[in-house]
Amino acid sequence: MHKKEKTKSYRNNLLAASCHAAQGLCFNRLAALILLLLSVLVSLPAAAQDTPSLTDKQIILNFRDVPLGDVLDYLSEQAGLIVVSDVAMDTRVTIISKNPLSIDEAVSLIDTVLKDSYLAAVRTQRTLRIVSIEQARYMNLPVSSGSDPAAVVGGDNVITHIIPIRYANAVNLREDLSSLLPDYAVLSANEASNSLIITDTSANVKRLIEIVRAVDTQMSSVADVRVFHLVYADAEDTADLVNRVFEQEQARSTNRDSTNPFQRMMNFGRGGSSPRDSSRGSNGGQSTGNTNVRITAAADRSSNSVVISAPNDTMDVIAEIIKELDSNPESEQMIFVYTLKNAQAPNIKKVLNNLFEELKDLKNQASGRNNNVGRGSSSSRSAGSDLSEDFYVEADADTNSLLIMTSQKNYAKIEPVLDELDKIVPQVLIKVLIAEVTTSDGLDLGTEFSVLNMRSSGGETLFGTEFLPDNMNGFMTRTLEGDLDFTIRALQEIGDLNVLSRPYILTSNNQKATITVGQEVPFVTDTRVTETGQTINSISYEDIGIILEVTPTINNESLVIMDVKPEISTMTGETVLISDNVEAAVYAKRSTNSRVAVANGQTIVIGGLMQDKDTDTIEKVPLLGDIPLLGLLFQRNRTKTEKTELLIFLTPLVAQSGEDLENISNQESSRSKILNDPQKYPSLQEHMNNMQSPVETH
């Protein structure tokens, strides 16, 4: 029978007894009234049982992206808690709980949500105070003690716990273990009681107790404790490996082998004697006083760290072993072969070596400024610090390949760079037309005469913007306003047009191309007379004629920037005496440098180089002019002046792919039919057939 039913039965029995007493003592109504009042008082506790207590009430928290203040208002309303907050409550949170929670569970869940904002909920009876985690350390927190981690329930509520230390030194432990705690936690040591006092979340407190319990061994007073933060290795696997190795070694009799087992492993790994052989010699300088000290390792999963307790003479060896265990698994040196499709292997090798030399210098400078390592931390390499280390590249010109020796991780980083450097380089087909325009003195030839300043017979402007060269030398560079064929026909109307050459040249982006229209002539560079009187001349050959160097650069706006360097050299007919009986011809040379930016397919023309030629002619009356002496009256002498100007037309055509180049070739082949005298000029089809390989590029 339930307590409530027992109470009602007791009340009914009491009422029946009261009535019986009243019948027996009807004359005493006052006594009956007193008994009735007593029965009412007895029934009051039963009524109180109908109201549930605060600890028994359950609530459901189900919120999606709502302000934290709204959640706390709901908790206050449902749980009857008084919420006090000194911090901003505008943080938006999501809490989903399908099952009902007790008040304590709800407060613990709120604590977990607050932790992300570095806040904490401190509960004192019905008051729930929201403060920062730093403030919570100094408030009325629950205090517990003990060295059993099972006694602490892990959660996000902030508590203060006292950990008694049996063997180790509490002050040293505090220094060694402080790096495992978050910034807001407080870890202090009480030297008098040899205990640690920690204020942190209960989950972190539980974790610290587990670590302390593992390192607080009987011989830890003569041992050192270090914390190793791992980068690549797993903390639990590393700790388990250390424990198993030393448990196996310490289970054997070590009287005949005083050398540390890890030291023997290290000696063997470095090419030294085997562990069996090392036991036959001396102890190698290792102290034998601490051979009975137990070596323990504990893992901290949250920070991926290992806490080692070991003798001082063994700790350095363990640290070196952990460094090897924590090495990057991808740091092993390998040889990779990267076959280039477009770029030249020697050029890419030079670029990579220069790049990594610069990176290495910068890293050395940075390491000199930041050369400080914290106590007990592992010296494992970070994930991205060795890109400039252990990198060697060699070029194989025969296969146009790069041989790269580095780690797998480094190669994975450099491979996208190689892909970018090996992209198809755009090519530029440059159409060149070299022509002479000869005009007679029937035209008005001023001091600024040039066909580049003239108009066609219809009044159209043939040439546009002028580019100023680096040195004038009489050259002028302008853009072509209309079609090249139209311009040629217009120039034929102005004077006699003679096309000297119409070559095509194909070059890659940013590569120099050279066009030479002329001949090689010998030059006497040195002369000497032997003992026998024989004169020996040193001869060299140079190109004479029209030499044109063009370096095109394609920018992101589809403009072609061309560095143009034309050079024209001719024989003057004069000679100079350079030694006895040796004369050298004199040549006239004119050149200029100019940089122009034109659109794809736009033509520029270089002109301004003119030559005057005077021709004496005799005009006479037929028959009468042939009479001796008298014929002079029927004839006259006339000097005819002709001015010849050399014009160089350049038209860049950009080909981003092989298909573009084929289309350009077909278009130019069809345009070749407009040539007036195809036998006079080099075959255009011959140029088209050779377009797949650059012509004399540098």
From TrEMBL:
<feature type="domain" description="Type II/III secretion system secretin-like">
    <location>
        <begin position="490"/>
        <end position="654"/>
    </location>
</feature>
<feature type="region of interest" description="Disordered">
    <location>
        <begin position="249"/>
        <end position="291"/>
    </location>
</feature>
<feature type="compositionally biased region" description="Polar residues">
    <location>
        <begin position="664"/>
        <end position="673"/>
    </location>
</feature>
<dbReference type="GO" id="GO:0015627">
    <property type="term" value="C:type II protein secretion system complex"/>
</dbReference>
<dbReference type="InterPro" id="IPR013356">
    <property type="entry name" value="T2SS_GspD"/>
</dbReference>
<dbReference type="Pfam" id="PF00263">
    <property type="entry name" value="Secretin"/>
</dbReference>
<feature type="domain" description="NolW-like">
    <location>
        <begin position="225"/>
        <end position="330"/>
    </location>
</feature>
<dbReference type="GO" id="GO:0015628">
    <property type="term" value="P:protein secretion by the type II secretion system"/>
</dbReference>
<dbReference type="Pfam" id="PF03958">
    <property type="entry name" value="Secretin_N"/>
</dbReference>
<keyword id="KW-0732">Signal</keyword>
<feature type="compositionally biased region" description="Polar residues">
    <location>
        <begin position="251"/>
        <end position="262"/>
    </location>
</feature>
<feature type="region of interest" description="Disordered">
    <location>
        <begin position="366"/>
        <end position="385"/>
    </location>
</feature>
<feature type="domain" description="NolW-like">
    <location>
        <begin position="160"/>
        <end position="218"/>
    </location>
</feature>
<keyword id="KW-0812">Transmembrane</keyword>
<dbReference type="InterPro" id="IPR005644">
    <property type="entry name" value="NolW-like"/>
</dbReference>
<dbReference type="InterPro" id="IPR004846">
    <property type="entry name" value="T2SS/T3SS_dom"/>
</dbReference>
<keyword id="KW-0472">Membrane</keyword>
<feature type="signal peptide">
    <location>
        <begin position="1"/>
        <end position="48"/>
    </location>
</feature>
<keyword id="KW-0998">Cell outer membrane</keyword>
<feature type="region of interest" description="Disordered">
    <location>
        <begin position="664"/>
        <end position="698"/>
    </location>
</feature>
<protein>
    <submittedName>
        <fullName>Putative general secretion pathway protein D</fullName>
    </submittedName>
</protein>
<feature type="domain" description="NolW-like">
    <location>
        <begin position="336"/>
        <end position="423"/>
    </location>
</feature>
<dbReference type="GO" id="GO:0009279">
    <property type="term" value="C:cell outer membrane"/>
</dbReference>
<keyword id="KW-0813">Transport</keyword>
<feature type="compositionally biased region" description="Polar residues">
    <location>
        <begin position="686"/>
        <end position="698"/>
    </location>
</feature>
<dbReference type="InterPro" id="IPR050810">
    <property type="entry name" value="Bact_Secretion_Sys_Channel"/>
</dbReference>
<dbReference type="InterPro" id="IPR001775">
    <property type="entry name" value="GspD/PilQ"/>
</dbReference>
<keyword id="KW-1134">Transmembrane beta strand</keyword>
<keyword id="KW-0653">Protein transport</keyword>
<dbReference type="InterPro" id="IPR004845">
    <property type="entry name" value="T2SS_GspD_CS"/>
</dbReference>
<dbReference type="InterPro" id="IPR038591">
    <property type="entry name" value="NolW-like_sf"/>
</dbReference>
<comment type="similarity">
    <text>Belongs to the bacterial secretin family. GSP D subfamily.</text>
</comment>
